Each structure stands twice: as structure tokens, then as C-alpha cells.
């Protein structure tokens, strides 16, 4: 690289008149870790606007960083946790309704109920890429709030008298919920450092467990007083959860900022300090322009497809348990319908404690992926208990322990947040991961074959096999990141020492020689 170009790059990423630069113009060229030339343009990350004013404020120190982190957690995490709690309660409403008369009233026979779970993920699958595009193009929080409002309305409409209408509504619900997880992955990457992201993803994701507890409690109350209502109890499950979701959409719209630069609870100096905190991530808040070269890089990156196949293996068990959990408890383990609703609650507690606890203790292993592999070994043990346990108590213990299944997915969502740079590449990789999530959840209910009721032994064995595959995929992803880091550590970085704010040039992880993958 010539000295002139080196000076150019230093100018691009530090001057105060960035907005005067032509967005599509090539301003400098650097060499990627693979030795290919990379063009730097004026189409940079949104965080650059704050980064170039760094001389106006004091430097970031540890005390200030902790204060900012505490403030972010206080204003952001409760709302994110509440949404994830409600969205999982909405998903489980199908399972709760199944033991409150849904299947009988809608005349479901054979595998018809299995298709109610599959239909949800067909909608999710079909709309994942459009949802990801909308989240990149428009303000993240406002966009997801609109999705939530409409899905709450659709959930209320689930109290229909015909199976065909119910299937159609489940499909639309899946389309609308497809925006939540990619939005939260983007938000987490905007606000937190690489080291902080695994625990924060675990916290908001673990509130699925609270959704399980609340949903089970509401459904149990409806079951106990079923004779007191003028409409069927299963219909009330959908109406109540739908109304709660509608209420939450307004909180999301008015409370949650679209990025740190628009955060109503931060001063101008604090907004700058957020940028300084995430500088070492080698990425910023995002870029609203679709970049074809980043999309192609995501599609060609072998690590993207390791994530995809991991997600399939992880979510075949998830899709089965989510839709057939209540049915397993009644037909296989011998609980009554009311008892089955109550028995969902211990599993929710296991999920909250297990997911957050494992994410917290990951710091002692210096690797979230090692902790994810340990969690997968626990899941394999739990699935052995469920499939081959000789007593109901042992099977029930296995059923409860399967609630730590999300730890692997939590790990990979945090991997996308921290280890995929370039905003178009991030949303593309996130979409592919979640398409794998959909495929797994599509297949999961279909492993519960009606002819194998009440034990559903084939489904239990399928869960066990998938968890073994999941363990191998996590190991493969871990090794690939270590290998990539070792190659980059051997690069001569002296040519890039004088480049200021290159972290916010919207480079991909494949383009940026300074980027290192967090393990």
C-alpha cells in the first residue's frame, strides 16, 4: 500500500466533514487478511458521526465504562426481557390450548396438530429475509414495535371455529415474529462489547422461561375455572396473551431507542462514550444501505453454513418440545391436563437459572463456546433420561433439564452479534442462522408421529441424535474461529497503526485485518 493511500485512509476515518464525501466513492484501498484488496468508501457505519467528535469529550476510563454499562442495562434489558417473555408465551399458547380443548373443538385428528406448529415456522421461514431487510432499512425499534402490534392482533384472532383459519393465522403469526430475534441481535451488538454480549443475550433469551411460568399459570387458572366462562378456555389463552402483546408494542415503540445515537436517556457525551466502549468490537451501530458484496461474502463464508446446520440440529428438539411438551406430560408421563400446565413451570425456572448461570460462568472458561458444549452434554444426558428412563421421576427430570437447550442458540446469536462485521453481512448471516432455526422447528413437530403415541419414542431418539450433531457443530465453529485468529495474529499490522476510526468504516470481518473472533 502506498504512503499516499495510507494517509488517505487516515483522513477518511477521522475527518469532521465525512458527510461531504460521496457515499459510493472509493477513498482508499487496504488489504484483507486473505490478501485481497478492499475498497473503503464514504458509506460508513452510523457510529462514525459520533466517533469523529472524540476530541470534544474526556477519555473513557473503567469507572465511566461501568457506569455507562449499568445505565444501558437499566434502560434496555428490562424491556427486551419483557418482550422475549411475551413472545415465548405466545408460541407456547398453542401447547397450552392443546390440553384445554383446542384439538377436540377444531376436529384435529392424526397429524393435524403437528401442522399447527409447522405452519408457524413456515411463515417465519418465508418472511425471515424480508424482515431482516426491513430491520436494516428502517429504524430497528420502531419497525419491531409495528411487527409486535400486528402479531398481538393476530394472536387475539386465533379463537376461530375452523382448522383452516387457525392454520392460516399460525402462519401469519410466524411471519410477524420473525423480526424479533434478528432485531435483538442487532440491538445487542450496538450497545455491548464482545465480552458482554453472551451474558446479555442469555438474560433476554432466558426470559422465555418466565414466559413459560406465566403462560402455565394463566392457562392453569383458566382450566380450573373453565366452566365459569361463556367461551372456551383455549380461546381465552389466545385473547389474553394477544392483549398483553398489544400493550407491550406501545412500550417498545416509545421506550426503546433505535440506536445509541438516538437514545433519549443518554447525554451527548454518554452517546460518544458508548461508541468508545464498542470500538474494540471493530463495528458500530449499523448501516442502512444494502451492500451486495457483503451479502455475497456472507453466502460464501463457510462459517455462515456451520451456523446454519447448527441451528437445524439445535431446533429439531426445540420444535418438538415446544409444541408437544404438554401432550407428553399427559399421554406419556401420566399427568392430568391441569397438572401438565403446572408442570411447565419448573422447566421455566430451569431455563432462567440454567441459561443465565451458564452464560455467567462462561467467563471462567474464557470461552462461551466451551460453555455451550458443556450445556449440550447436559442436554444429551437429559434426553437419555427422557427417552430411556425407567421411572416417571427420571423422565420428568430429563424433561425439565431439556430447558437448557437454548444455551447453544444463545451462544450462536451472540456469535453473530460479535463475530460477524459489516451490517449487511450481519443481517444476512443472522437471517441464514434463523432460517436454520425455522427448518429445525419445522421438522421437530413432524418427528412426533401419531402412530407412535403416547410414548413418541422415535421423536425422543431424534432429539438425542440432533443434540449429538449440535455438539459437533459447536466444536467445528470453535475450531474455525481459533484457526482464523491464529492466521491473523501472524499478519504485519504496522501499516494500519495510524488509521483512526477504521472500526466504523463498515468493513466485514473478512475484510478487516484488525478483526479478531471472540471465542
TrEMBL record:
InterPro entries named among the record's database cross-references: MFS (IPR011701), MFS_trans_sf (IPR036259)
Protein name per UniProt: Allantoate permease
Topology in the lipid bilayer: Multi-pass membrane protein
Transmembrane segments: 109-127, 139-160, 166-189, 201-224, 236-256, 305-329, 341-362, 369-388, 400-420, 432-449, 461-481
GO molecular function terms listed in the Swiss-Prot or TrEMBL record: transmembrane transporter activity
Cellular component terms (Gene Ontology): membrane
Gene3D superfamilies registered for this protein in UniProt: MFS general substrate transporter like domains
Pfam families: MFS_1
Species of provenance: [Candida] railenensis
Location(s), subcellular: Membrane
Keyword Transcription belongs to the record: no
Keywords per UniProt: Membrane, Transmembrane, Transmembrane helix, Transport
Family per record: Belongs to the major facilitator superfamily. Allantoate permease family.
Keyword Transmembrane helix: yes
Amino acid at each position: 500500500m502506498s504512503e499516499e493511500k495510507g494517509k488517505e485512509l487516515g483522513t477518511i476515518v477521522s475527518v469532521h466533514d465525512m458527510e461531504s464525501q460521496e457515499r459510493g466513492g472509493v477513498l482508499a484501498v487496504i488489504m484483507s487478511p486473505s490478501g485481497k484488496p478492499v475498497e473503503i468508501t464514504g458509506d460508513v457505519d452510523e457510529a462514525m458521526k459520533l466517533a469523529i467528535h472524540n476530541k470534544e469529550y474526556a477519555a473513557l476510563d473503567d469507572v465511566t465504562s461501568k457506569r455507562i454499562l449499568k445505565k444501558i442495562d437499566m434502560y434496555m434489558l428490562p424491556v427486551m426481557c419483557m418482550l422475549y417473555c411475551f413472545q415465548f408465551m405466545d408460541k407456547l399458547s398453542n401447547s397450552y390450548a392443546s390440553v384445554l380443548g383446542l384439538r377436540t373443538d377444531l376436529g384435529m385428528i392424526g397429524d393435524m396438530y403437528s401442522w399447527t406448529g409447522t405452519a408457524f415456522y413456515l411463515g417465519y421461514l418465508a418472511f425471515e429475509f424480508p424482515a431482516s431487510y426491513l430491520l436494516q432499512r428502517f429504524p430497528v425499534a420502531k419497525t419491531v414495535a409495528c411487527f409486535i402490534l400486528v402479531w398481538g392482533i393476530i394472536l387475539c384472532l386465533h379463537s376461530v371455529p375452523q382448522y383452516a383459519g387457525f392454520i392460516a393465522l399460525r402462519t401469519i403469526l410466524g411471519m410477524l415474529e420473525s423480526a424479533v430475534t434478528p432485531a435483538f441481535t442487532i440491538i445487542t451488538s450496538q450497545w455491548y462489547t464482545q465480552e458482554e454480549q453472551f451474558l446479555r443475550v442469555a438474560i433476554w433469551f432466558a426470559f422465555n422461561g418466565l414466559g413459560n411460568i406465566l403462560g402455565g399459570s394463566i392457562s392453569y387458572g383458566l382450566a380450573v375455572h373453565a366452566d365459569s366462562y361463556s367461551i372456551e378456555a383455549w380461546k381465552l389463552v389466545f385473547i389474553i396473551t394477544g392483549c398483553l402483546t398489544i400493550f407491550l408494542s406501545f412500550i417498545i415503540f416509545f421506550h426503546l431507542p433505535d440506536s445509541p445515537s438516538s437514545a433519549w436517556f443518554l447525554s451527548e457525551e454518554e452517546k460518544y462514550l458508548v461508541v468508545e466502549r464498542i470500538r474494540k468490537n471493530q463495528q458500530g451501530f449499523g448501516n442502512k444501505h444494502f451492500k451486495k458484496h457483503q451479502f455475497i461474502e456472507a453466502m460464501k463464508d463457510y462459517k455462515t453454513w456451520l451456523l446454519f446446520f447448527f441451528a437445524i440440529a439445535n431446533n429439531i428438539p426445540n420444535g418438538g418440545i415446544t409444541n408437544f411438551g404438554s401432550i407428553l406430560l399427559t399421554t406419556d408421563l401420566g399427568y392430568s391436563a391441569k397438572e401438565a400446565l403446572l408442570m411447565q413451570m419448573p422447566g421455566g425456572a430451569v431455563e432462567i437459572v440454567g441459561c443465565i448461570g451458564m452464560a455467567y460462568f462462561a467467563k471462567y472458561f474464557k470461552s462461551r463456546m466451551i460453555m455451550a458444549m458443556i450445556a449440550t452434554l447436559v442436554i444429551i444426558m437429559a434426553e437419555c433420561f427422557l427417552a430411556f428412563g425407567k421411572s416417571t421421576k427420571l423422565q420428568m427430570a430429563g424433561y425439565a433439564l431439556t430447558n437448557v437447550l437454548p444455551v447453544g442458540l444463545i451462544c450462536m446469536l451472540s456469535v453473530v452479534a460479535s463475530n460477524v462485521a459489516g451490517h449487511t453481512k450481519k443481517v444476512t448471516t443472522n437471517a441464514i442462522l434463523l432460517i436454520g432455526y425455522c427448518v429445525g422447528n419445522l421438522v421437530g413437530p413432524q418427528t412426533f408421529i401419531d402412530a407412535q403415541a403416547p410414548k413418541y419414542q422415535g421423536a425422543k431418539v431424534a432429539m438425542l441424535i440432533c443434540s449429538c450433531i449440535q455438539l459437533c457443530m459447536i466444536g467445528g465453529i470453535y475450531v474455525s474461529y481459533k484457526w482464523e485468529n491464529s492466521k491473523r495474529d501472524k499478519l504485519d499490522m504496522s501499516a494500519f497503526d495510524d488509521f483512526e476510526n477504521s472500526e466504523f468504516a463498515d468493513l466485514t470481518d473478512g475484510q478487516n485485518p484488525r478483526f479478531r473472533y471472540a471465542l
